[in-house]
Amino acid sequence: MSPSDSLNTVDNFLRHSRRKIAIIMGLLALTLAMIGVAINAGAANTSPMDVLRALLGLAEDNSGIVIWNIRLPRVITALVAGMGLAVAGTVMQTSLRNPLASPFTLSIANAAAFGANLAIVFFGAGTLHSSTHDAVFIANPYSVSFSAFSFAILAMLLILLLAKLRGFTPESVVLAGVALGSLFTAGTTLIQYFADDVQVASMVFWTFGDLGRVSWREVGILALVTVVAIVYFFFHRWDYNAMDGGEDTARGLGVDVSRVRFWTLLISALVTAVAVSFMGIIGFIGLIAPHMMRRILGIDHRYLLPASALAGSALLLIADTVARTVVSPVVLPVGAITSFFGAPLFLFVLSRGRKLK
Questions:
Q1: Alpha helix positions (H), the chain
Q2: Most exposed: 83, 149, 211, 254, by fewest CB within 10 Å?
Q3: In which band, very low, low, confident or very high, does the pLDDT at 357 lie, cut at 50, 70 and 90?
Q4: Cα 288 to Cα 29, 48, 104, 295, distances in angstroms
Q5: 60: number of Cβ within 10 Å
């Protein structure tokens, strides 16, 4: 290679790096803009100036209560949960080398929801009532999260066991996830069969997915788990880049593939379990955001991880804002809105088949 070719290669590399950084900055600006829109949107009429005064503690009417007690926890939950689910989906797809892998398609969300429902109904971790705002009041969120996490880990260990069996292709792993999802859905149905009418209505409402039931206490737990997970994932960004080239390539570069894959899936299950136990099932965020960013930025996890995190936050903020405003004052379940976004993309991914591997 001549010196001029080397300089052109370096210039191309720097140009592509600047383009990726510019895209990430654009996603950051979009996310910040959506935070402003989401805080201002709602049944209570508030202006941007009302929001600013409330955030500065200068509000003289009820807008301060609305902003700090209702909208801000919801917005931060969307920000953090979208970030965690999207990053978990990104590293799952890389670890399993399967573009259809996500907390939703691998049944982890269904398993966590089953565990959370089990704790609420049979272990006394939640109090059921039939108010119009909260069908389930979580008296002990830590035990619910522990139960959801336990079943999420059980589902993940079963998937890892199946993945190790000879002859299991990535498609088979996803099908195993679908089968486990059906199993845990059947278990949830059995719980509902033995519950009374109010309990059944409460469990169904809980499963819809709703950011409005999360208080500042749950926001703190969710943020702590998500930040720790993202730090771990970003610390292993070079390992994920190597694993994208195949297991043999990664091992040749000194990556302990089995250890990285185990801890990646375990921590992804933790993030998903905590989010689902607090909010219910929020589908497709972990599938949509990584695929969008892979197509735009490529597979370099130095850029893919922060971009997926911001895309997940922006998507969940948009979905929740639509859910709160499209038929206001009625608030639609955000899980249904994300499914409307995600189902067409999921079908698109299936139609692309092997081209996405």
A1: 3-40, 48-55, 63-65, 72-96, 108-122, 141-164, 170-193, 197-208, 216-235, 237-244, 247-252, 257-279, 285-297, 301-325, 334-352
A2: 254
A3: very low
A4: 19, 30, 11, 11
A5: 8
Task: Please state, in angstroms and rounded to a whole number, the distance separating the CA atoms of residues 267 and 153.
Answer: 9
Distance CA 31, CA 18 (A): 20
Q: State the amino acid at position 226 in one-letter form.
A: T
Token output for 239:
């390992």
In angstroms, the CA 210 to CA 220 distance is 17
| Whole-prediction pTM | 0.84
CA pair distance 191, 203, nearest whole angstrom: 9
Write the burial class of residue 155 (CB in 10 Å: 0-12 exposed, 13-18 middle, 19+ buried): buried
Q: At what angle do helices 285-297 and 72-96 cross, to 10 degrees?
A: 70
Q: What is the mean pLDDT of the chain?
A: 79
Model pLDDT, residue 141: 58
Paired residues of 38 in beta bridges: none
- Return the axis-axis angle of helices 216-235 and 301-325, rounded to nearest 10°: 160
Residue with the bigger pLDDT between 145 and 313: it is 313
pLDDT surpassing 70 at residue 169:
no
Count the Cβ atoms, other than its own, within 10 Å of residue 357: 10
Query: What's the pLDDT at 170?
Result: 59
Cα angle value 165/171/172 (rounded, 5°):
35
Angle at 283 between CA 282 and CA 286, to 5 degrees: 105
Distance CA 140, CA 172 (A): 37
